[in-house]
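Same chain as my last thread, 340 residues:
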Amino acid sequence: MGVFQQLASLVRQPRLEPLPSGYDLYGRTAIVTGASAGLGLETSRQLLILNLSTLILAVRNVTKGEACKKDLLVDRTVQAHNPKAIVKVMKLDMDDDQSIVDFAKIVKADVPILDFLVLNAGIGLLKFELSPNKHERTMQVNYLSNTLLIFELLPLLESSAAVTGRSTRITWVGSRAHHTTSLQKQDPVKPDETVLGHMDAKEHFSAFTKYNDTKLLCAMFMYELAPYLKKSNVQINMLCPGMVKTAMTDILPIYICFPMSVFQSVTARTVEEGAWPIMNAIVVAGPDSHGKFILDKDIQPVDRFIQSDTGKEIQKKLWVETLKDREKLTRIPPEMMSSL
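reply #2:
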């Protein structure tokens, strides 16, 4: 048995089934970020197949987004189930705080009801880079931008629930990689450091752990945010879709990309299968998933490091720092600010 087959036998993913029948999203509106490729695009397609009335593709490249819109509307399965679907394309650059604020302003002005906010956009980088806002780019896109978008659209999600009488939902695509990060042993946050400063510093950048580290922060933020949200109004959950055959590995050097491609061919899910856990978290998972991390389709206990004294301290520091940082750009609910 070759090395990749051995690895596959160790991490072989459980077989998943598509959503059960009977779900109808007529009259609902969803925003999907990172919707022009991979899991974001496939999730958008599957939402439309469930008769979603209005879909907003939040994309960095509007031209590419328009091409995706066209493909979705001519998709035979979409046409068969949802011939009157409304698909809109809106500019959203998760690398830029101002783009997020501008996007949210248009949404709040033009979208009366928002039922689902699907936070799918994310990146992994091999080299240290800064965003236009002077944060490390992986940190900006995967973590800070998502927190800003949540705060910007939270009032709309709350008002939508009040109008419709049903809870709205934030579903965030996370990763089981948050169980293995540099913050645990390799490169811990020192007592005199801020968490955000540590994550932004070039000397703490590692191509092999940065993605994992940012996903850990996302999970920590969700755990802090959830108690402030009344789940009868707004529910938030996070999920890992597992290993999926997408273009995210294309950025890897050939000596890593090739073996990863072989490994993926044995173990990875198709994009269609990879979207099933996302759809489960959006549509099927009940109120018990509020503030929880879902692996495939099963709610998981909080990560051991997050439960540790060190993890708890980092989570609290992160919460305070994030609110203070994002307050410069958006309104933070008073009950959250009063906790500082």
